[in-house]
Amino acid sequence: MLNFCTYFDSNYLAKGLTLYRSLVRYAMPFRLWVLCFDNLTYEILQKMSLPQIHPILLSDFEYKDEELLKAKSNRSKVEYYFTCTPSLPLYIFKKYPEVDVISYVDADLFFFSNPSTIYKELNDNSVLIVGHRFPSYLKHLEKYGIYNVGFLSFRRDDVGLKCLNWWREKCIEWCYDRLEDGRFSDQKYLDDWQGHFKRIIVLKQKGAGLSPWNLANYQLSENKGQIIVDTDQLVFFHFHDLKEVQQWLYDPCLTQYKVRLDSFLKKHIYGPYIRELKDVTNWLSNINDSAYMKISSIRGRVQGNIIYRIAKKTKDQLTMVKKILLGQSLVVVGGKVL
């Protein structure tokens, strides 16, 4: 059985459940522990009673963890979320002694095939990490981290636990949403792991960790219903920064990575995900009206005063009109993604 963990609040609930649905399709049997950052998320997941999902109440997670609570008092909400990343696998290892390997997954991942090939690469190693794999013209983004926190696997052994505890100590000491002294949130610390620990493996397969920032590296194709990345099967895609502008309009934010939203991406990558996401959102609306909400990233931030926000909204609207005209956005009409 595969074991996964993630976290989100009610703003990210639909994306988290879309991740869950993809795991049901391709990763059975599995367990997914969800750290719920607000009570609404916990209540809805409890009400849904999905057999593979194990919701964790935030107060239970924080219970008697004085170091974590102290860190919570001096950073923003999103920074505290990042601070909790290494503590979540440790919490599961402590509470569930039968778990041998746990994989942390960001809630905006979506699986397109069985993840078993990832674990074949992990083999008997202790920790698995995934590189950003930036193309040459985006190498400057490595200042935010060579590796991405979106998918990480840890084995319950001396190295896996030592790495997790080291990462937790670092995140409690400093975990802010800014670049400072070679650090950035929970992510930049991953750059040091291979220098500090043995049995750390960097995932090689191209089909795991496909994302907006590395799409330019690869040739995508379709073969008998499977998406192929160069010669590897697509395992999961990281839908980082996908924004719902309106119920009928989505912005994949690809232009910042100089990637064109072509017909293949619309049909085979973004289209299936958005259809699933909208279906989950409708599903939630039938369970609890308060869960029917605009999807927004927990890695976002609130900006400025009222004048600034009005100006920014106007600018964003003009930008979206331009993206629509240039074919860089996704329009949903009658259940179809155009």
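The record above closes out task 2.4. Task 2.5 opens with a second protein, given below.
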Amino acid sequence: MKSVVLVFLGGGLGSVIRYYFNITFNFIISTFPLGTFLANIIGSLFVGIIVGFLGKSHVLNDNLYLLLVIGFCGGFTTFSTFAMENQIYLKNGDYLYFFSYTLGTLLLSILAVILGLFLTKVY
């Protein structure tokens, strides 16, 4: 039960912050979901940093992992919104936006995880 509460708390906080990302950043470029894009990349960076730090410090605490990685980062990042936004691009025939958003999100998110892991090994 404790695990469920930790995931619930982290996920709720992550979701609220993602909501604010969307209302803050989606108005900057009206044709591109910048809020979701940034949330997914920053969330991936957080996952790399958190996992790297927990592994490096030998404090691989299941509670912290549940709260921060599964809960917070799971609530902060969003694959379902990413998929829906891409479906809209395809439906509207905006293939350049579709490919740039899809490839940009995937590549930058993977690189962000690697960067997060690297930063925790260097510092």
